[in-house]
Write a structure and sequence with these properties.
InterPro entries: DUF3060. The structure is a single chain. By secondary structure, the protein is mostly beta strands. Strands 1, 2, 3, 4, 5, 6, 7, 8, 9, 10, 11, 12 and 13 form a 13-stranded parallel beta sheet that branches. The N and C termini lie far apart (about 40 Å). It has one helix and 13 strands; from the N terminus they run αβββββββββββββ. The protein has one domain. The N terminus is likely disordered.
Length: about 170
């Protein structure tokens, strides 16, 4: 029963994401869909399970809700990954939010008007970042793994951590 709770919780979050999705976003909803999409500056939402999506160009907010998605992207203003077992990799994002469980995210975190921001909650998420400017890493939850490296000239990040058994380390 305890092993099924994260999946049930992720499914609930995915359905909440569907109910509150912006009507102006490009939506990919379903199971097992494979698509390439040119964002053209728009927000994009990926909902459901096991979709394989390649986003090209500049995106607004990229939202990934559900489970077992594989999403790649070139650039986004904000990246929000929620659910379980999603794999998201990409170019650059200013704000990155990762929640629920067992998601794998890799991207370059860039600064905008302020520092780039990572907010990680939940459990067992794996996050790999290249810091392209000032950054704040906010990590809570349980057994999160955040690895980061710096682009030339980027300062060390400001790190805030809570929870238990989290690892926040610079890549060697």
């Amino acid at each position: 029963m305890l092993l099924r709770l994260p999946v049930i919780f992720a499914a609930t979050l995915a359905s909440l994401g569907l109910a509150h999705a912006d009507d102006n976003e490009l939506k990919i909803q379903g199971v097992g869909i494979s698509r390439d999409i040119d964002c053209q500056g728009k927000d994009v939402g990926v909902y459901g399970a096991e979709n394989e999506i390649a986003l090209t160009g500049a995106c607004g907010t990229i939202t990934v809700h559900g489970s077992k998605h594989k999403v790649s992207f070139e650039q986004g203003q904000k990246l929000s990954v929620s659910g379980s077992d999603n794999v998201v990799s990409g170019g650059r994002a200013r704000d990155v939010v990762v929640s629920v469980a067992k998601n794998t995210v890799s991207t370059t975190l860039e600064a905008g008007d302020g520092p780039g921001q990572l907010k990680a909650t939940g459990a067992n998420n794996r996050i790999s970042l290249v810091l392209a400017g000032p950054a704040q890493l906010n990590v809570g939850g349980v057994e999160q793994s955040v690895e980061w490296s710096k682009a030339d000239g980027a300062p060390n990040p400001e790190v805030n951590s809570s929870g238990a058994l989290n690892s926040i380390k610079r890549k060697k």
